[in-house]
Design brief:
209 residues, mainly alpha, 2 domains, two-stranded antiparallel sheet, 2 strands
């Protein structure tokens, strides 16, 4: 970075003029400003990509999204996921012959599963996992941020651990299938997570797009 030097004329002790070179304490401030500008550019680009995904795959809001092979391909095209992740997630989607449930349907399933589990054990850890998962799905595009929607990776890890535990034996085959779909959705939500930069700024960008 080029530092600008400002010349100022001052009087010395003998009354003659002398030129003093001063460097403003701007280096740190300029660096911070440039960093902020870089973040703004990244946010703008990210917001634009999410907006394009919105228009193509969930124009009626996050609830209308179905995680299809085409959606996963687009995530890869936009750089949200790596090639290996695209192949892994694509394999999950292609393993079912049925059209994937919409996020709204998945959310409804979470409510049904949670209510049934409460009847068996009101302290079951799955109840809280599903509550946080639902908040994450509702904030897929960054439009509904909340404390519950934070730390997506941990929520998905807890869900995966639960499904592998003895506690999962109380779940039906359909419920397990629904929760595996949820796990896929959470993984995608983590990659799209606007909190990686700034959810507040992202929402501002989205409001103008």
């Amino acid at each position: 970075m080029t530092i600008q030097l400002n010349n100022s004329v001052v009087n010395n002790a003998n009354g003659s003029n002398t030129t003093k070179k001063t460097t403003g304490n701007t280096t740190s401030a300029e660096a911070q400003q440039n960093s902020s500008n870089d973040d703004d550019i990244k946010l703008s680009t990210r917001a634009q990509k999410i907006q394009k995904l919105n228009e193509e795959f969930f124009p009626n809001g996050p609830g209308s999204l179905r995680i299809t092979g085409d959606f996963i391909q687009r995530l890869y095209d936009y750089g949200f996921i790596s090639q290996s992740e695209a192949e892994h997630l694509g394999g999950r989607v292609s393993n079912t012959k049925d059209l994937p449930d919409s996020l709204e349907k998945i959310s409804n399933n979470l409510s049904i599963i949670s209510d049934r589990v409460k009847l068996i054990d009101s302290e079951d850890s799955l109840i809280d996992i599903l509550k946080r998962s639902d908040a994450i799905l509702n904030n897929l595009d960054g439009s509904n941020p909340s404390e519950l929607a934070k730390d997506i990776t941990s929520v998905n890890a807890e869900l995966t651990s639960y499904l592998k535990s003895d506690e999962a034996e109380k779940l039906t085959e359909d419920e397990v299938k629904a929760l595996k779909e949820l796990s896929t959705a959470l993984r995608i939500a983590d990659r799209m997570n606007p909190a990686n930069l700034s959810a507040g700024k992202l929402n501002q960008y989205l409001s103008f797009l």
